[in-house]
């Protein structure tokens, strides 16, 4: 799918993170991608309201994080910190759903694989 579904967009606009496991180039690693939205205030970032609010729609920014982690951390249920992450790409301050879709398509072919981050083993 070349576009995010309405359900995926609604999830993002209510503060629900989307994630997916990707194919890793190395057998000892697992690869993940995640994205979520936030609101920017003058001095800080803040969480999005849990209810759909069309007034906030144009003010939402997104981030994308793509990374790999050694399987030993996931197999043993160890905590994962930034020190254990490899091949990390972290894009922030992406304004609007269309720009988010454009950036995601540079990293993954099928946007339909993105689902609520609790549905995959995304450790972050």
Produce a short descriptive summary.
With 124 residues, the protein is of the alpha+beta class. Helix content is 18%, strand content 35%. The chain has helices at residues 6-13, 71-75, 97-105, and strands spanning 18-22, 29-40, 45-46, 60-70, 85-95, 115-116.
The percentage helix is: 10-25%
Radius of gyration: 15 Å
- Largest sheet, strands/sense/barrel: 6 strands, antiparallel
Shape: globular
Integer average pLDDT: 87
Give the CA-CA distance, first to last residue: 25 Å
Order of helices and strands: HEEEEHEHE
Count every helix, treating DSSP H or I runs of 4 or more residues as helices. 3
The strand count comes to 6
Strand content: 25-35%
Q: How many domains is the backbone divided into?
A: 1
- Low-confidence regions: none
Q: Structural class, from secondary structure content? A: alpha+beta
